[in-house]
Specification:
The protein has 620 residues and is of the alpha+beta class. It contains 19 helices and 30 strands. The mean pLDDT is 92.
Length: 620
């Protein structure tokens, strides 16, 4: 039961899971690249003892492997899972009572209650400029706090039980922010802090905000936990930490007694430009107006340690956060949405761009042919449920067709869906709607479209995975002549039933003509039903100097779902609109090329890569 971040790090070090970096490191790109490389090589957590320009130590990759997560929460994970199981289905929990589980749930429940402890005397004061000024990517607008725990209450006199804690990036330098007096607070749509902010605006008062950094590992994980709207993340921090969340109130601000740092400030209606920032989808999010926090005080412990993470194209450390949370909350999903059995936000596709779901189809059990009906009800429930509401592409299948279908087996799930889709009936678009703030495929911030692909019933087609099939596919001259390649050179098969076709760079004026030519070629191809999904990608796609052609499954997922908007970029053979419903015949064609309104993908200079590699070689 850790009482501080340092205690947890020392425990990791004792177990051989943490190494120290003794030489001075530069927070401008260098530290972030070190963190990326150590994560990619399945390396240890790191403790930087000398950070250029800062008096504080820093730590990264704390949660970078499943082994470390299991180790850090080895004493509390079972109790937390038991408590979640009880919360999700108390009737089932008591049907077969287990004394050990009952005792475990009771003990975990006690730790869930926050406890008033500590005082302002336990902290010293510092400034934002004293914090490690970590800049992760070259075009970032400044330094960012990447593991903040942003705590707000409906009012300063509200009960601690009403506290919302979320992880919203904090920009502490750059742009128009007054040094040491202001910082940017970027919260996306569908974040609970918005309720508190809206209430403060309606009451014409600033919102008091506390930003905790560090503290027990459970506090950090709690900040990304998708809790029910009226249940505070502080409860979860206590359960997972095996120790009640310690806090005190100072000038109306909630302060974590165990945190390494606490930034206290007021958020008013005033907005200031925030960003750009290299984000977890694998692209920069652009500079936009977001709330500005007027900093009143920055507190730190005497030997504070500054934890940070680095995001970018998955997988990264936040991938482990997602899988760990799913491990805990898995029982809550079917309890929250009747008929839903499993759900998977695909990390390789950027998380929110692609969601796979398995559900029941029971509406008409006497029908001779099963078709998606209940699946559509469930799909719409998913698109209204917590963070799943940000899903852009939702592929949902009926459990009755295959009880063993696994949403985590992406190729098998895709094959199951593609074999059964009736493309004239089973594609359901939501246009002119809200999408993830970090997704720019829709052309406007927070705006875009969604697509539900619902599959139920018997197989309609057999999928093939044979490169010889494309020998008789004659691509239009616009594809082959512009690149001096044959059809075979331009087509990849990342999995059964799926083609990736490289094409010339996007040109709005030429797209319609080119795609009409492609549809004409496909119409004559005898295997078109066997390859019902085609993604069109750029001839040269690179990220961090790595060439992507779509032949690997992770590349297909990332290119297709992070570079397309369903309503803008999906085409199909013999497409039609009937009663405002869009349909087509197989295959569908997804234009996943880079468009002018897209953001830049993330790359890092080679000299920074080399320097980071040298430091790791010397220190590890």
């Amino acid at each position: 039961m850790y009482k501080s971040l340092e205690q947890a790090l020392l425990d990791l070090e004792k177990a051989g899971m943490l190494k120290r970096i003794h030489q001075e490191v530069d927070p401008n790109l260098e530290m972030a690249e070190i963190a990326r490389q150590v994560f990619e090589n399945n390396g240890p957590a790191l403790l930087f003892e000398k950070v250029k320009g800062s008096p504080f130590r820093a730590a990264c990759n704390i949660f970078g492997t499943q082994e470390r997560l299991d180790f850090l929460f080895r004493k509390t994970i079972k109790g937390t899972q038991t408590a979640v199981q009880f919360k999700s289905n108390p009737v089932q929990f008591f049907k077969n009572p287990n004394p050990v589980k009952l005792l475990r749930a009771a003990c975990t429940g006690i730790n869930a209650l926050p406890r008033r402890s500590g005082s302002i005397k336990d902290f010293e004061e510092c400034t934002l400029a004293d914090l490690p000024q970590i800049k992760s990517w070259p075009l970032d607008g400044g330094a960012f706090i990447t593991l903040p725990q942003v705590a707000t209450r409906p009012s300063e006199n509200a009960s601690v039980m009403t506290t919302n804690v979320g992880m919203y990036r904090i920009q502490i330098s750059g742009n128009e922010y007054v040094p040491n007096e202001e910082c940017g607070l970027h919260y996306q749509i569908k974040r609970d802090i918005a309720r508190h902010h809206r209430k403060a605006i309606e009451e014409n008062r600033p919102l008091k905000v506390s930003i905790f950094i560090g503290g027990t590992p459970a506090q950090t994980v709690a900040a990304v936990m998708p809790m029910p709207e009226n249940l505070s993340e502080l409860f979860f921090a206590g359960m997972l930490g095996g120790r009640r969340f310690r806090y005190f109130i100072h000038d109306g601000y909630l302060i974590s007694s165990d945190a390494d740092f606490c930034i206290l400030g007021e958020m008013e209606p005033e907005l200031k430009p925030e960003g750009p920032f290299g984000d977890h989808i694998g692209y920069y999010s652009d500079k936009h107006d977001f709330p500005c926090l007027k900093v009143k005080k920055v507190l730190c412990k005497k030997n504070a340690i500054y934890p940070f993470t680095v995001v970018g194209r998955p997988p990264k450390e936040d991938t482990l956060f997602g899988s760990f949370i799913h491990q805990i909350t898995k029982p809550m999903v079917p309890a929250s949405i009747p008929g839903l059995h499993a759900i998977h936000a695909v990390d390789d596709a950027g998380v929110h761009p692609l969601c796979l779901a398995l559900a029941s189809e029971r509406f008409v059990p006497y029908a001779k042919e099963r078709e998606p009906m209940e699946l559509l009800k469930t799909a719409n429930a998913i698109l209204g449920f917590n963070q799943a509401s940000l899903s852009k592409y939702l592929l949902i299948a009926a459990k009755e067709d295959n009880a063993n279908l696994n949403v985590n087996d992406v190729p098998a799930f895709f094959a199951h869906v593609l074999e059964r889709l009736d493309f004239s009936r089973d594609l359901h678009f939501q246009t002119a709607t809200t999408i993830d703030t970090l997704d720019y495929t829709g052309g406007r911030l927070n705006h875009g479209s969604k697509l539900i692909m619902a599959a139920a019933g018997e197989k309609r087609r057999n999928l093939r995975h044979d490169m010889q099939d494309i020998e008789i596919l004659q691509l239009p001259d616009a594809f082959t002549n512009s690149q001096g390649k044959t059809s075979r050179n331009l087509i990849k098969m990342p999995m059964a039933g799926v083609l990736i076709i490289q094409a010339p760079a996007f040109d709005e004026n030429e797209r319609e003509a080119i795609f009409m030519q492609l549809e004409s070629a496909l119409d004559k191809w005898e295997f078109r039903e066997n390859y019902p999904w085609i993604s069109i990608v750029d001839q040269v796609s690179e990220i961090d100097n790595e060439r992507l052609d779509g032949s690997k499954l992770p590349d297909f997922l990332w290119l297709t779902f992070t570079r397309s908007d369903p309503a803008r970029d999906i085409f199909g053979l013999q497409s039609f609109i009937q009663n405002k419903h869009w349909g087509c015949h197989a295959p569908i064609i997804v234009d996943a090329r880079v468009k002018p309104h897209h953001q830049k993908s993330l790359t890092i200079p080679n000299e920074i890569k080399k320097r980071a590699a040298e430091i790791l070689k010397q220190e590890l």
